[in-house]
Amino acid sequence: MLAFCIFFFLSIVSSKYAVMQYGQNYFVYELGTCYYYTNKYINLYEEDKQIRTKSGTTCKEMEDDPSFNALFAIYELRDDIPEFSAVQYLWDLNEKCELSDKDGHPQEFLYAAGCNKDISGKFYIQYVYDEDKNTVSINKYSDEKCTVAEGEVITKTKGECLKETAGYVTYSDNSVKVFVILALAVMFIF
């Protein structure tokens, strides 16, 4: 068990991420992980402090693909991911929110924790995960402290495949981060 915790901790600590801020939220890709991106699988890696990409029809059969380099040039290389309260997984046009390659992952869009100005700048927004109901609520407010509600609360069931403007999506919470903290706690106990 201790060996697993140490291995898990080292794999998390040594991870690098490509992060792009979008308003107060973030697009995030873990380097070395295979993602589904517009009818292709891509894998990002670092070379000379730059983000480079490989692509292919599966995660196992990839070749260098410089056509993505300009897109990911605006991403920042980081050793950690920003604080977040919910994540939206982007499945493009996959109606069942499943990928043909079991090693592939959907794109990840992290919703920042706390009360944040919406990308439009017209209101503030807060994403709240309700563990009892297994839902992610999207709450709009007119003030920067998120105390004066504006409009109805939009609620998404965790893991449910939904059709939205961006294509098919699922929502989740930040439980992976909580798992990492628990794994660290277990490691230090033993």
TrEMBL record:
Keywords: Signal. Residues 1-18 form the signal peptide. This is Transmembrane protein. The lineage of its organism: Eukaryota, Amoebozoa, Evosea, Archamoebae, Mastigamoebida.
